[in-house]
């Protein structure tokens, strides 16, 4: 099968998300200038540089009470900071609760029953029990093609790693089983890893 996205695919559901998989989930926490906390998952997310460490996520829809975007981007525009909370398999249901379309005054930490902790380098809440948290200062917001598509880039200014996830001096993903996004309503969990040496190593 071949199709041009501009002409449609003719299938019951859009296959694009199912092709580009698995995708890590950026569970983004933000705090507005008014002090309102927000937490939402984004599957267009990844690390994008080592020195200095940087991450990015994309928001691709809008809410009536936020104009051209959603709560996360609106908060980051106001404060210039955000936190990425890593999603473990055990937190899948809480993460799913925070994916709901809530009004801007709703605190998703409360909706999902998640304990907050304060970040160390930025004024923002983080998921206290997450395996890891990346505190970030926004470096740029890039408007992408499409009505509500924004890419947010941030420099990581502080990193929290849960003590039980450290094994022999390494951050061990099998100790918490990270969740990833597939297409449609599907997710995957990392339960097995293997290593490969690069040519010349």
TrEMBL record:
<dbReference type="InterPro" id="IPR002563">
    <property type="entry name" value="Flavin_Rdtase-like_dom"/>
</dbReference>
<dbReference type="InterPro" id="IPR012349">
    <property type="entry name" value="Split_barrel_FMN-bd"/>
</dbReference>
<dbReference type="GO" id="GO:0016646">
    <property type="term" value="F:oxidoreductase activity, acting on the CH-NH group of donors, NAD or NADP as acceptor"/>
</dbReference>
<dbReference type="Pfam" id="PF01613">
    <property type="entry name" value="Flavin_Reduct"/>
</dbReference>
<protein>
    <submittedName>
        <fullName>Flavin reductase like domain protein</fullName>
    </submittedName>
</protein>
<feature type="domain" description="Flavin reductase like">
    <location>
        <begin position="18"/>
        <end position="173"/>
    </location>
</feature>
<dbReference type="GO" id="GO:0010181">
    <property type="term" value="F:FMN binding"/>
</dbReference>
């Amino acid at each position: 099968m071949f199709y041009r996205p501009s002409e449609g695919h003719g299938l019951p559901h859009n296959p694009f998300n199912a092709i580009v998989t698995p995708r890590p989930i950026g569970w983004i926490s933000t705090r507005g200038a008014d002090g309102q906390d927000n937490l939402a998952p984004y599957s267009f997310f990844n690390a994008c540089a080592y020195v200095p460490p940087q991450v990015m996520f994309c928001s691709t829809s809008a809410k009536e009470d936020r104009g051209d975007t959603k709560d996360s981007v609106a908060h980051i525009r106001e404060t210039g900071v955000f936190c990425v909370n890593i999603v473990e398999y055990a937190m899948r249901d809480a993460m799913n609760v925070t994916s709901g379309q809530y009004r801007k005054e709703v605190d998703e930490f409360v909706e999902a029953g998640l304990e907050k902790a304060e970040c160390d380098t930025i004024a923002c809440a983080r998921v206290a029990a997450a395996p890891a948290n990346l505190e970030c200062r926004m470096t740029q917001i890039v408007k992408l093609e499409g009505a509500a598509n924004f890419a947010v880039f941030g420099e990581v200014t502080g990193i929290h790693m849960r003590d039980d996830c450290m094994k022999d001096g390494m951050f061990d993903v099998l100790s918490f089983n990270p969740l990833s996004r597939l297409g449609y309503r599907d997710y995957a969990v990392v339960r097995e890893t293997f290593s490969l040496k690069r040519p010349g190593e």
